[in-house]
Amino acid sequence: MTWVKVCGLTSYEAVAAAIDGGADAIGLVLAPGSPREITVERATALASNVTVATFIVTVGLRPGETLALAEQVGATGIQAHGDWALDVAAEAAEAGYLSLVPVPVDKDGPTFPVSEVPETSIPLFDTSFRSLHGGTGIAFDWSLVSDPGRPFILAGGLGTENVARAISMVRPFGVDASSNLESEPGIKDLSRIADFIREAKQA
Hints:
TIM Barrel; eight-stranded parallel barrel; globular
């Protein structure tokens, strides 16, 4: 059964919808400028008593800063974007955190070799789009992703209408969705969350 992460949650209701719907993980965005950005205090509150894996999503932070945030929030996982992502991933795994490493995919395929992702982390293939770090709502050409010989997660423009097809074509370990589950930027539609998880789990 496919592992499912619902990212960019900003409310208690959305967190509850993801957990009640059967998600395996949630993501809390601490990246400045994102419409899904929440404060550390808000993330800490939302992560309280969560029974599934909880990832903080950061951009451009060094390992020490990222690990400190994860500890403060009470997260169990880290999804770091930007220049220090690989260093963060290595130290996060060593510190006992789950680690997802975003691998942007453009029209020519992954923008760097998956072999660079530490073996203790899971690659997350996502759409490469200008300066945005995920949350684009745009799917890339799934045929550009070949089986890397290790578990990986598929993201980028996934929603209720296409997740089953994506899983059938790519056969990822897991899927991750955010913007296509929203009624407006930063606001999750609770029914879309439930529908997405159901479609992914049944695929």
